[in-house]
Design brief:
With 214 residues, this protein is of the alpha/beta class. The protein has five helices and five strands. The protein has helices at 17-31, 71-85, 103-112, 157-167, 189-213, and strands spanning 3-8, 37-42, 89-93, 133-139, 171-177. α1 (17-31) links the parallel β1 and β2 (37-42).
């Protein structure tokens, strides 16, 4: 049965564009048949604790002698990794917050990025997610086009591409929409028109991606 892991991290529960894009993907996935299942985790509504012990950055066999992290924290980390590894496809709503990912999403990354379990380490080629697809639905308040003063300021999608793509071995697809603040800040009509157009295009792209990957 094709299985999707659907994550959201936006604090905006009413008008979030990253949520709208990821929801379009997940709804289309479900529409493909009853066998297309979804695990849903809302990282804002149900935030994960940040790692409270450095030992949790390592699996038990690689921990320093005497390390004894909280068993509840270990169990939660194992649950999150199980959710990830059970997924054929992952869709992540990842808005740009202060030029990077929301801290709620970073906490998830810190839990699932485990050397020798989900990522290679010291010759260990363990990559259970190798070849699977992660779809990043990102929404950005401004614009980061080549040649603009803010080119290269987006540090959200690159970190996800490194963790999920380079390290975990997944194929990463990014669906982006820009100028989400065009109706809240002093921007011209062209910016608002581009904002609306990109949102519609992103939702269509999410639906098409779900049909293709499902």
């Amino acid at each position: 049965m094709p299985h999707l892991l659907h994550l959201d991290s936006s604090a905006d529960l009413e008008s979030s564009r990253s949520r709208a894009i990821s929801a379009a993907f997940a709804d289309t996935w479900r529409s493909l048949g009853d066998d297309h299942t979804v695990t849903r985790r809302d990282l804002h509504r149900d935030p994960l604790p940040h790692l409270g012990d450095p030992a949790l950055h390592w699996p038990p066999r690689l921990r320093a002698p005497g390390a004894s992290p909280d068993p509840a924290a270990e169990a939660l980390q194992a649950e999150l990794i199980h959710e990830l590894v059970a997924a054929d496809v992952v869709v992540i709503g990842a808005p740009l917050y202060n030029y990077t990912v929301p801290s709620t999403l970073k906490a998830w990354i810190d839990n699932i990025h485990l050397p020798a379990v989900t990522a290679p380490f010291d010759g260990d080629d363990q990559q259970p997610m190798l070849g699977r697809t992660a779809v990043i639905a990102t929404a950005r308040g401004g614009v980061y086009d080549p040649g603009t003063p803010t080119e290269g300021f987006d540090h959200a999608t690159p970190v996800l591409e490194i963790i999920l793509g380079t390290t975990l071995g997944m194929t990463v697809e990014t669906i982006a929409t820009n100028l989400t603040l065009s109706r809240h800040l002093s921007m011209d009509d062209a910016a608002r028109e581009r904002s609306d157009r990109e949102l519609a295009e992103a939702v269509d792209a999410a639906r098409a991606s779900a049909r293709r990957l499902g």
